Amino acid sequence: MGTDEFGGASATPVSNVSDTARWVAVYRAVESARPDAVFDDPHADRLAGERGRQIVASVPRMMRSGWWMVARTKTIDDLIFDAIGAGCDRVLNLAAGLDTRPYRLDLPAEFRWIEADLPGLVAEKEQLLAGETPRCHLTRYPVDLADPEARDRFLIEALAGATTALVLTEGLLMYLEPADVDDLSRALTRPEVAWWMLDLAGPGLKKAMNENSRGLLRNAPFKFAPPEGIGYFEDRGWRVGAVESVFVVAHRLRRLPWFLRLVARLPQPDPHHPPRNRPWSAVVRLTR
User: Fold this and answer.
1) What is the DSSP string of 254-275?
2) What is the CA radius of gyration of the chain?
3) Secondary structure class of 285 (helix, strand, coil)
4) Predicted confidence (pLDDT) per residue in 257-279, tens digit
5) How far apart are alpha carbons 164 and 92 in whole angstroms?
6) What tens digit of pLDDT does each residue of 44-100 get?
7) Are 269 and 275 in contact (CB under 8 A)?
8) Is the predicted pLDDT of residue 2 greater than 70, yes or no?
9) 91 pairs with which residues across the strands?
10) Nearest one of 98, 115, 129, 92 to 20, comparing CA atoms
C-alpha cells in the first residue's frame, strides 16, 4: 500500500500523481528486458522500485501488459529526434517524473535538456541516479508547476538563450483541470517555444481509467480529455504538426495483445472527435 500526503496508509498503491511515474518506469523496464526491445532503459527498474511493481500488480489484468506506455515512449523518442534534426536547441520536460531520456537517448553532448518537477520527486530521482552520467547537458529544477508564478519564473530562466525549444508534457495533462491546461497553453505561447509535445486522452479513455481500474486512480483521476480532441489546441492558436495514435503505433511495434489486433485493422477515430465509448489516446506535437 502507498502512503498519503500525511504519511498514513492509503487504500491504493497510487497515493498521488507522482506515483504514476513509478508505474510507467515498470513498463520501461519490462520492455528493455525484451530481446526485441524498441528502447533500452537500464535505469527503469531501479527507479520503479517496489512501489512501482506493486502498482502494476494491482492493475486489472487486461491493462497489465503496458503496450500503450511502450508505444507512447517510443513515439516521443522518435519525435524528439525529428525535432532536433529540424533545429531544436533545447528540451524542457515539465513534470519529468522518473523519465531517463537524457541518459538513454543518443543526444549531442552539448544539447541542453531541462527537467522540472516537484522538489520531493527531483530529490528522489537525483539520489537514485547518483553516479550516472547523462549524455547531454542536463539541468533539473525543483518547482511546483501548479503555482503559476513559480512556473512562469521557471520558464523565463529555463528558456533564456533558446530560440527553438521543445516543451514536453508527457503524462501530465490528463491529471489537470481544463482551466489549468488553458493556463499552461497561454504560458507556453512564447517566442522561444517552437514545439509543444503532449499525450492526449480521449473521453473514452478517461472513463475507462477512472471507472474500470478497480479504484487504482482514485487519488490521481483523469480530468482532462476534451471531446473536441486536437481541436481544443487549434482553438487556442496551436497548429497540429503530428498526431500519432498510441493504438496504431502499438500495432506497428507488435505490442498489441492478440485480442486487439483485429480492431487495429478498422478505421481509426478522427482525432477531432475522439470516441466517448472506447479508449483512445495519441501523442501530439504542436507548433504555433
Assistant:
1) T-S-GGGTTGGGSPPPPTTS--
2) 18
3) strand
4) 988 888 888 889 999 999 999 99
5) 11
6) 999 999 989 988 888 777 677 899 999 999 999 999 999 999 999 999 999 999 999
7) yes
8) no
9) 113, 166
10) 98
Work out the mean pLDDT of the chain and round it to a whole number: 91
CA–CA separation, 77 and 83 (whole Å): 10
Q: What pLDDT is stored for residue 9 in this prediction?
A: 37
What DSSP string describes 160-199?
A: TT-SSEEEEETTTGGGS-HHHHHHHHHHT--TTEEEEEEE
Q: Which three cell numbers stand for residue 29?
A: 523496464
Show Cβ contacts of residue 218 under 8 Å, excluding neighbours closer than 6 positions.
11, 12, 14
Amino acid code (one letter) for 96: A
**Residue 214's pLDDT is what?**
64
Grid cell listed for 251:
500495432
> Is the CB of residue 272 less than 8 Å from the CB of residue 203?
no
d(CA 282, CA 284): 6
Which ranges of 94-147 does DSSP label H, i.e. alpha helix?
Answer: 101-104, 119-128
pTM confidence score: 0.92
